[in-house]
Structure formats: structure tokens, C-alpha cells
Write a structure and sequence with these properties.
- The chain is of the alpha/beta class.
- It has 2 domains: 116 residues, Dna Topoisomerase Vi A Subunit, Chain: A, domain 2; 62 residues, no CATH class.
- Helices cover 40% and strands 10% of the residues.
- It is built from 7 helices and 4 strands; from the N terminus they run βαβαβαβαααα.
- Strands 2-1-3-4 form a 4-stranded parallel β-sheet, with helices on both faces.
- Strand 1, helix 1 and strand 2 form a beta-alpha-beta unit.
- Helix 5 crosses helix 6.
């Protein structure tokens, strides 16, 4: 990829987007350098690299989680873009650019339906351990559930963000209708 950068929050976003782009756009020219990882849904950590991309005439796309409020997430990014004089070619917010949520919300929607029962078991486990109110237990959020799902299989990588193979059809459906908004957002940059 060249001519633009994609600003994202973290390693999981990078691996998912890399696999998604390679699969849906039949390309293997996706490099780590094409992504700017902020560590949070905040432009400030990468503002100098975004400004450099702007100066080189590269388009800058932002793909962040919408978290609990899509409107708040969009407003925060737009205020930062104005404050730091950053030119953004487009913004997309996981899960689908309309709803609150995150990448894990999206991932739950694209699990191979034949394997969804495994995630139901993981959900039940999460509810069960949550009833015990033990201080030393780690939080069992959606991110943990998705990676336990991946780690439960002998295919598809490990439950670590950089080791998940989202192209593994036994686990994921990268052609799912739920991914159409993301596909449409990225399409102009890959045609």
C-alpha cells in the first residue's frame, strides 16, 4: 500500500485489518509502515507522523473503536484534527460505523456460524466466574472472550493479537454482510 496511512488503536486492529484487506481486495502489499498505531482512540500520539503524511500528500484514514458512544468518539477525533491541523481523508468506527462498540463487537458478528456454540460456552463461563466476586480474577471482557475462542481451536493461530489468522474460514467469515460498511469505506483506496 502506498499513498495513504491508516491510523488505528492497536495490534489487534492491525492484524484484523491486514487480513481483511488482503482477503477482500486480493492484495498482499499491506505493510506495517502503512499503519500508525496510537495505543488509544486518540490522534495525539501519532500527530507528527500524520502531519508528515499530510505534507507528502498521502491520505490519512482513521479506524477507531466507537466504544460506548459513536458520537463522542467522532467528536473527539474531529476536535483533535482541528486542534493539530490534521487532514483526514475518512473515519470509520468499529464495529460498523453506526453502532457503539469495538473491534471485538465486530468479531463476534463474523464468527463462523458453525462454531458459534463455542463462544456461547465461553459466555456462560464468563457469567459463571463473574458470580464469584473474587478480587484476584482478571476481568473477563469481550476481548478476553474472543481470544479464548481463538485459543480453543488447533487452527487459526493463537489467542495473541498478532497471531490470530482471521483468514481461517473454519473460525471467521471475512465475507460476512456485517463487514460491508468497512469494505465500502476502504474500497476507494484499493481499486
Amino acid at each position: 500500500m502506498s499513498g495513504f496511512k491508516i491510523v488505528i488503536e492497536g495490534e489487534t486492529d492491525f492484524k484484523f485489518l491486514k487480513d481483511f484487506i488482503e482477503h477482500r481486495f486480493s492484495t498482499t502489499n499491506i505493510d506495517r509502515e502503512d499503519f500508525l498505531i496510537t495505543g488509544t482512540n486518540n490522534l495525539k500520539p501519532e500527530r507528527s507522523r500524520i502531519l508528515s503524511a499530510n505534507e507528502r500528500g498521502e491520505s490519512v484514514l482513521v479506524i477507531f473503536d466507537s466504544d460506548k458512544n459513536l458520537g463522542v468518539a467522532k467528536e473527539r477525533v474531529e476536535k483533535q484534527a482541528l486542534k493539530f491541523d490534521l487532514k483526514l481523508a475518512g473515519q470509520f468506527y468499529f464495529p460498523n460505523n453506526e453502532s457503539s462498540g469495538n473491534l471485538e463487537t465486530l468479531l463476534r458478528q463474523i464468527i463462523n456460524p458453525a462454531r458459534s456454540g463455542v463462544l456461547e460456552c465461553i459466555d456462560h463461563y464468563g457469567k459463571c466466574i463473574g458470580q464469584h466476586h473474587i478480587n484476584e480474577l482478571r476481568s473477563f471482557d469481550e476481548k478476553a472472550k474472543v481470544f479464548i475462542y481463538v485459543d480453543s481451536f488447533t487452527v487459526g493461530g493463537k489467542g495473541k493479537p498478532d497471531q490470530v489468522d482471521y483468514k481461517e474460514k473454519l473460525l471467521w467469515n471475512l465475507d460476512a454482510e456485517y463487514l460491508q460498511p468497512l469494505y465500502e469505506f476502504l474500497k476507494p483506496h484499493f481499486e
